[in-house]
Design goal:
Distance between the termini: 63 Å
Shape: globular
Number of strands: 20
Order of helices and strands: EHEEEEEHEEEHHEEEEHEHEHEHEHEHEE
Largest sheet: 7 strands, mixed
Strand content: 25-35%
Helix content: 25-40%
């Protein structure tokens, strides 16, 4: 290896020795030479101890570790990591499933590839880089995916304009790295179809991480009046309809999201009068609605992306859920979520408890939810457990 060396301050190697994949800027003492942003560096601890190699980046998280062993980051490295990720998806039955062709292939730290996300929609892979290092390696990663996935992959779309640090000033690099098929397709999940717009949609085009939670909701929907708040592309809505819901209302502040929800509902339940969609602010809709619903889904975007706004985010979750508790019919079911990484399970549960107490309702926990198995959590990186959810019975 001939990488520049990053030397850590005394006692700052302890978390690395426990295999945590992040090194914060405050832990760095010096460098053998100033590294470029995105460059691969070697990490050295006390007594010249080798600790790992990783991508360097300007910011709070200064290094994301790729390997804790002396490793050359080349095509063989990418092949090995992507092969391991693919093997896991095969093992949990997502590759070649008879009722679905959508899953997450690479989930950052959970697949020992920090800063990289890849979702599979049928024969298209959508790749997102969350670090400059992964951005600079995108072509090598794409070539590796083509080798590993073989003929099952017809296109790779790179979509990182909104996920890379804006200060890096890299310009808009979104586009096809391999193949091309127009930027929109139809994928399937548990036998239901949905449109995916990976060019203009949020994230990679669909929220793959709610797959199992949507399936659970279907089991509770029969005969109920359902409100899907922050519906985005309507995933929970068409699962509720398949579950036998009496009526389903989808709400999102984005008119584009509502249009896509209507398209997805029509794709699965054409001309079904049970569904209506509304482009409206969530809090305004909740405040003015009556007690019309006995199944409510609250799946808002991340209220907190940084710890310095955590307090305000928790107040937002409390206010949102308190209104839902006040309005939901007796015997109602509430599916409520947080996708904020900085909101812990304990913080989220305490906030929902406070909201229930504020509303004066008796509430019981039926399920505690998280992300599915294709979004694995590295046991040494508990921050990777970002999705928290509760299914609550409200008397």
């Amino acid at each position: 290896m001939n990488y520049k060396k990053i030397y850590l301050k005394p006692k700052k190697e302890e978390s690395i020795l426990r295999f945590h994949p992040w090194i914060f800027s405050g832990a760095i003492a010096s460098c053998s030479a100033e590294p470029e942003e995105g460059e691969i560096v070697e990490i050295i601890g006390a007594n010249q101890q080798f600790l790992g190699v990783g991508h360097y980046q300007i910011g709070s998280i200064a290094i994301r570790i790729l390997s804790f062993e002396p490793t050359i980051i080349d095509s063989a490295f990418w092949d090995q990591r992507i092969e391991a990720a693919y093997a896991l998806r095969k093992a949990i039955g997502l590759v070649g499933a008879s009722d679905g062709n959508t899953y997450r292939l690479i989930h950052g730290e959970g697949d020992n590839l920090p800063g990289l996300v890849v979702d599979i929609y049928d024969q298209t892979a959508v790749m997102q880089a969350h670090s400059i290092g992964m951005h600079l390696s995108r072509k090598e990663i794409a070539e590796s995916m083509i080798r590993i996935l073989g003929g099952t992959l017809k296109a790779i779309y790179y979509k990182s304009d909104s996920t890379l640090p804006f200060k890096a000033d890299l310009g808009n690099e979104d586009g096809y790295l391999y193949g091309e098929n127009g930027g929109e397709g139809i994928a399937t999940e548990h036998g239901l179809k949905f449109y995916v717009d990976w060019r203009k949609g949020q994230k990679t085009g669909f929220f793959v991480d709610q797959r199992e939670n949507r399936a659970l909701l279907q089991a509770y929907a029969k005969g109920r009046s359902v409100l899907n708040m922050f519906c985005y592309t309507g995933g929970f809505s068409f699962y509720a309809m398949r579950g036998g819901a009496k009526v389903v209302h989808s709400v999102d502040s984005s008119a584009k999201a509502i249009a896509l929800t209507n398209q997805n509902v029509a794709l699965n339940f054409p001309d079904d009068p049970r569904h209506q969609a509304f482009a409206e602010d969530a809090f305004k809709y909740l405040e003015k609605m009556g007690s019309n619903y006995d199944l409510i889904i609250l799946d808002p975007p991340a209220f907190a992306k940084h710890r310095n706004v955590l307090r305000n985010a928790l107040q937002g979750y409390r206010k949102l859920n308190a209104i839902a508790f006040e309005k939901i019919k007796p015997g109602g079911i509430l599916f409520t979520f947080s996708c904020s990484q900085v909101v812990s399970k304990e913080n989220f549960r305490l906030t929902i408890f406070s909201a229930a107490a504020q509303a004066g309702r008796k509430v019981r926990v039926l399920h505690q939810l998280t992300q599915p198995a294709d979004h694995p959590v590295n046991i040494y990186h508990p921050e990777g457990e970002y999705l928290k959810g509760l299914v609550l019975y409200v008397e």
